[in-house]
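Treating backbone geometry as a discrete language has practical consequences that deserve illustration. No coordinates are needed to read the tokens, only the vocabulary itself. For completeness, the protein is quoted in full, as a sequence line and a line of structure tokens:
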Amino acid sequence: MAESSFSKAASTAAGYYDSNDADRFYAEVWGGEDIHIGLYNAESEPIATASRRTVEALAALIKEQRTDSSNESCSIVDLGSGYGGAARHLCQNPKVNVEAINISAVENTRHRELNHAAGLEGQIQVHDASFEAVPLKDACADVVWSQDAILHSGDRQQVMKEAARLLKPGGVMVMTDPMAANGVPSGSLSKILERIHLSDLGSPERYKSWATNVGLQRDVWDDRTPMLILHYSRVRDELQRRHDELKLSISPEYLKTMSAGLEHWVEGGKAGRLCWGLMRFHKPKE
């Protein structure tokens, strides 16, 4: 898919994640294979450990919904797959296949390399594509999966429409996303929005509404906002602790801007303007 066919917000995200600075920072500091918010058992826990726990928690939500299908094959579409940590974890089950949709060519290259090293090329197909226009047929997925990615879309309603299109009747969608708290105006998030080049964020109620509009029903909203605050604090502290080492491979300007941006997320979370948690939706059987 040509980049010109992406929305402005999606193209901006692609440019950001394709930069060398971003690639090095997310791979070395944010969590390695898993570049999303973690679930921490202790404040001092390694970022990568907590981030993997989020993957396990979302996988558990799938199992709850598919209790009678544990021995059946499962087709998963991962919207915004990053470096593919979740896909490889899910494919520890040989009956799972993942279609990984991601807009960053740099991340996708690393994703394919890691899949090859793990011997999972046969179970994971990486697509250079936007989750606003997924190049897959209707009703191809038992599960749609997304972690802290849909915020980068310029049309989140369209992403939810794609999720509904991709799901088979009876299928489930599990996701996380950094969001505004319900009822919080975009103006109060200006520093965060400027940093990520967006005009607004989703919210729990907005996602519920977007899902309802396309025929999906939300049955789980597990509010874990304290984890957002802790995760961004941990990443900021790690950046500061390793600053002298990181500046050898990441530009000082990027590190300075990232540190300031992380502080805005921490402040927004503590002020009650942001939220984060786990959501599950299902597509009713026909």
